[in-house]
Amino acid sequence: MTCPKCGAENRKGVNFCTACGGALKKAPHVQRKRVLSGSAGIRMAAGVASLVVIGLAVFISRGIGPDQARPADATSRPAARTVSLAVRGVASKFICGCGECNDLELADCTCPRAVEERELIDQELKRKTPEREVVRLVNSRYGHIKPQYASLVAGASN
């Protein structure tokens, strides 16, 4: 390989000239494009078109916007709403008491009763009710406080 800077001959595969240290240019790698012609090209185009149509069908069947109604599965539960840290802090002191949730923590359960209890917690916290009073209120209405938090409701009715 000839050095473009000084003209010295170098062995093949070196990156720098052994005489002057200049960078040796490698021949650019030429990548061949594969051209599909005839029936192979038609089959490829038909396959791509099919995938696009299937993708659009799936997209449309799932609904275009978040507020668009989707068919509900009769056995599914309502979608879980985002629970604020303050609500989660109070709700984590309780077990869901609906009897169908396998003792899930109130902060994590998605059954209608758990949602109702968390909404009560949220309303009271927004009213600036002290957390201890919110805990007592939830316990008096719904019960199922975890044993380790029973001292928070001592003297209040269950």
Q: Would you kindly provide a brief summary of this structure?
A:
The protein has four helices and no strands. By secondary structure, it is mainly alpha-helical.
Describe the structure.
The chain has helices spanning 39-61, 85-91, 112-126, 131-142. It is mainly α. 12% of the residues are buried. It has a domain at 85-153: Orthogonal Bundle (Helicase, Ruva Protein, domain 3). The protein contains 4 helices and no strands.
DSSP strand count:
0
Mean pLDDT: 78
Biggest sheet, open or closed, and with what strands and sense?
none
| Rg on CA atoms, Å | 34 Å
Uncertain segments: 66-80
Layout of helices and strands:
Blueprint: H1 39-61, H2 85-91, H3 112-126, H4 131-142
Helix pairs in contact: 2-3, 3-4
